[in-house]
């Protein structure tokens, strides 16, 4: 299989997951789409080297994180999310779950980018501490420290998420 076909196959198989990660990092659908697109353009340039290294998923995840941090640093501004939950016609009442998602999204947006990335990778991507450290290019100790500080910050800024945070700490 040639490089271009391999890259296209990789993207087709993982675009949904990469988009979810990007949304969790950015808190905004449009910013997430841009983040994925910019990252994949950069990765495509080095696809042969990426596949030879043997861990394209980890490489792309790391590139996605680094691109997010780079763009955040370049903008030097805080993201402020204010979107309302979507209206859903019929079906069950999902208002409590929608409020919880909004509170979680807003709380994540108030974390430092590194803390947010650790929370996303550890609890939403379900990576181990070692895999998270590898994805972020830091030590396992840094992951543990960032996780501890991020959960404490979440507890302080969104006490209504206490049950969710306790569940995360138990599973860690």
SSE diagram, text form:
Blueprint: H1 3-26, H2 29-45, H3 47-53, H4 56-75, H5 95-109, H6 113-124, H7 129-136, H8 140-157, H9 162-171
Distance N terminus to C terminus? 40 Å
Count of discrete alpha- or pi-helical segments spanning 4 or more residues: 9
Helix and strand sequence = HHHHHHHHH
Strand content: under 5%
Which regions contain 5 or more consecutive residues with pLDDT less than 50? none
**Percent range of helical residues:** over 70%
Overall mean pLDDT score?
83
Total strands: 0
Secondary structure category: mainly alpha
Radius of gyration: 17 Å
Shape by Cα distribution: globular
- Largest sheet, described in full? none
Question: Your description of this structure?
Answer:
The protein is an all-alpha fold. Helix content is 76%, strand content 0%. It contains 9 helices and no strands. Helix 1 (3-26) packs antiparallel against helix 2 (29-45), helix 2 (29-45) crosses helix 4 and helix 7 (129-136) crosses helix 8 (140-157). The mean pLDDT is 83.
């Amino acid at each position: 299989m040639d490089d271009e076909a391999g890259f296209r196959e990789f993207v087709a198989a993982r675009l949904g997951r990469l988009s979810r990660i990007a949304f969790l990092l950015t808190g905004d659908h449009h910013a997430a789409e841009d983040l994925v697109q910019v990252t994949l353009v950069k990765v495509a340039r080095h696809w042969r080297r990426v596949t030879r290294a043997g861990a394209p998923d980890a490489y792309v995840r790391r590139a996605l994180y680094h691109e997010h941090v780079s763009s955040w640093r370049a903008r030097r501004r805080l993201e402020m999310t204010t979107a309302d939950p979507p209206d859903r016609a019929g079906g069950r009442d999902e208002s409590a779950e929608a409020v919880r998602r909004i509170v979680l999204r807003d709380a994540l947006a108030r974390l430092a980018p590194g803390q947010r990335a650790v929370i996303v990778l550890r609890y939403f991507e379900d990576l181990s501490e070692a895999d998270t450290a590898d994805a972020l290019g830091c030590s396992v100790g840094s992951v543990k420290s960032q996780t501890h500080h991020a959960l404490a910050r979440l507890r302080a800024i969104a006490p209504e998420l206490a049950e969710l945070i306790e569940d995360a700490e138990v599973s860690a």
